[in-house]
């Protein structure tokens, strides 16, 4: 008998659409990475407290929460292509708002831009995954999605490099030890210049997004229709509400995203406390991202042999130990421990995502996935609280001691508590 023809990963006729949609995975990774250092940048340039600067993350991740479910329902009713175009339009509009924000020099204007920007990201993240799955044979759908997702870390690293090389290293205010004490005229000039530096990567990004929007708009895209209206949405919500594994999983995802953003955002404040500049601190965040990628590859391999709940529990335990060292080990070794946390966080998002949706029927999964995207709101709330802890002794990062640790060190008690819950969740679901 003649051997059956193996299904292609990507058919030639869908190659261009596949490339265009795959680029989106890198684009939202870029947005996430370039925004984290902005907390420290805005703090210095606009003379904000740590909790005030945390509004950057509040705006960024709050947009996910507000738009994730509406985006999911919209895409289910209309076409994937329309969902992508709306996402790109909102993403570009939010990025371009940085231009008038820099002119007005108003912090709230920048936050508004980030908030609208993440409306677009919510649309893209709820659209791109099923769209990639639909671009070919069902037999190769998982491989195709894994290939597309591999470009997300590329955007992550690119965003950090842009933030380091084209923002942090060019901020004049970061080179001045006591920026607040400068005479008003000189301070105003530096402030105006630095806000333009912060503005530029977002404006360029907005223009790139417009180009991608046009390419996708004029391209013939396959599978342009979703699966239609979701039948019995209320019934799906009721079923999800009664599913403890799912409900506890959404909470675990809230805590995970919060922990991730806290560890990646406040690495700059931690470095500041031991005399490391923001541009040099970016090198440590870059190392954290590399460990994150290594950990994800390692974790994916280990999942072949270890129950997902068990692996989640072990990784959460190791993340917790690293966090304790971050809190109570002073100096550069504490910073090394903070970097190491990323290695153990690496498998948490996809593992929690998969475990939470496991066993759900198709329609419950569609709504359930939107709930897990909404859980990204943890990245808005928890960094704000961490900033408030850092501000307990004053606007500096190490004004006072709490339980024998400086306030910036102690603030990592919040990620520690998050990892404790995630470890408990992993232990619980491993027995199911």
Describe the structure.
- It is a single chain.
- With 432 residues, the chain is an all-alpha fold.
- The protein folds into two domains: 211 residues, MFS general substrate transporter like domains (Growth Hormone, Chain: A); 198 residues, Growth Hormone, Chain: A (Up-down Bundle).
- The chain contains 21 helices and two strands.
- A two-stranded antiparallel sheet has the order 1-2.
- Strand 1 and strand 2 form a beta hairpin.
- It starts with 14 loop residues before the first helix and ends with a helix.
- 50% of the residues are buried.
- About 2% of the residues have low confidence.
What's this model, at a glance?
With 432 residues, the chain is mainly alpha-helical. It has 21 helices and two strands.
CATH class of the largest domain: Mainly Alpha
Alpha-carbon Rg, integer: 22 Å
CATH superfamily caption of the largest domain:
MFS general substrate transporter like domains
Strands, count:
2
Largest sheet: 2 strands, antiparallel
N-to-C span = 44 Å
Strand order of the largest sheet: 1-2
Task: Please write out the topology.
Layout: H1 15-35, H2 38-45, H3 50-53, H4 55-77, H5 80-96, H6 98-104, H7 107-134, H8 141-149, H9 152-167, H10 184-218, H11 233-242, H12 244-265, H13 267-273, H14 278-302, H15 308-328, H16 332-345, H17 348-357, H18 362-374, H19 378-390, E1 401-402, E2 405-406, H20 407-410, H21 413-430
Antiparallel strand pairs: 1-2
Sum up the structure in keywords.
globular, Growth Hormone, Chain: A, two-stranded antiparallel sheet, 432 residues, mainly alpha
């Amino acid at each position: 008998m003649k051997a059956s023809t193996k299904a292609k990963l990507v058919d030639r006729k869908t190659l261009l659409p596949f490339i265009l949609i795959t680029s989106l995975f890198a684009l939202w990774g870029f947005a996430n990475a370039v925004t984290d250092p902005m907390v420290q940048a805005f703090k210095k340039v606009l003379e904000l407290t740590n909790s005030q600067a945390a509004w950057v993350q509040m705006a960024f991740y709050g947009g996910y929460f507000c738009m994730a479910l509406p985006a999911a329902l919209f895409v289910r009713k209309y076409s994937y292509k329309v969902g992508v175009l709306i996402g790109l339009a909102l993403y570009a509009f939010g990025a371009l708002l940085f231009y008038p924000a820099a002119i007005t020099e108003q912090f709230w204007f920048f936050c508004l831009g980030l908030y609208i920007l993440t409306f677009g990201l919510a649309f893209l993240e709820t659209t791109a995954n099923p769209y990639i799955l639909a671009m070919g044979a069902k037999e190769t759908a998982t491989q195709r999605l894994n290939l597309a997702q591999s470009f997300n870390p590329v955007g992550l690293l690119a965003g950090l490099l842009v933030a380091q090389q084209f923002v942090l290293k060019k901020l004049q205010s970061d080179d001045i030890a006591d920026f607040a004490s400068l005479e008003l005229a000189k301070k105003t000039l530096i402030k105006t210049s630095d806000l333009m530096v912060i503005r530029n990567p977002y404006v360029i990004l907005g223009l790139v997004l417009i180009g991608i929007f046009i390419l996708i708009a004029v391209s013939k895209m396959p599978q342009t229709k979703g699966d239609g209206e979701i039948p019995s949405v209320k019934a799906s919500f009721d079923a999800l509400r009664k599913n403890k594994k799912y409900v506890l999983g959404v909470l675990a995802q809230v805590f995970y995203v919060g922990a991730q953003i806290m560890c990646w955002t406040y690495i700059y404040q931690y470095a500041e406390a031991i005399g490391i500049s923001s541009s040099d601190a970016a090198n440590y965040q870059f190392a954290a991202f590399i460990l994150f990628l290594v950990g994800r590859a390692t974790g994916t391999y280990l999942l072949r042999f270890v129950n997902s709940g068990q692996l989640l529990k072990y990784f959460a335990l190791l993340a917790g130990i690293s966090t304790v060292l971050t809190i109570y080990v002073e100096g550069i070794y504490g910073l090394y421990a903070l970097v190491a946390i990323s290695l153990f966080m690496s498998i948490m998002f996809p593992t929690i995502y998969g475990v939470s949706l496991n066993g759900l029927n198709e329609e419950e999964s569609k709504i359930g996935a939107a709930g897990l995207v909404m859980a990204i709101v943890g990245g808005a709330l928890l960094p704000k609280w961490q900033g408030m802890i850092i501000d307990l002794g004053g606007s500096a990062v190490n004004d006072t001691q709490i339980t024998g640790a400086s306030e910036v060190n102690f603030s990592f008690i919040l990620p520690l508590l998050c990892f404790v819950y995630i470890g408990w969740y992993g232990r619980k679901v491993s027995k199911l």
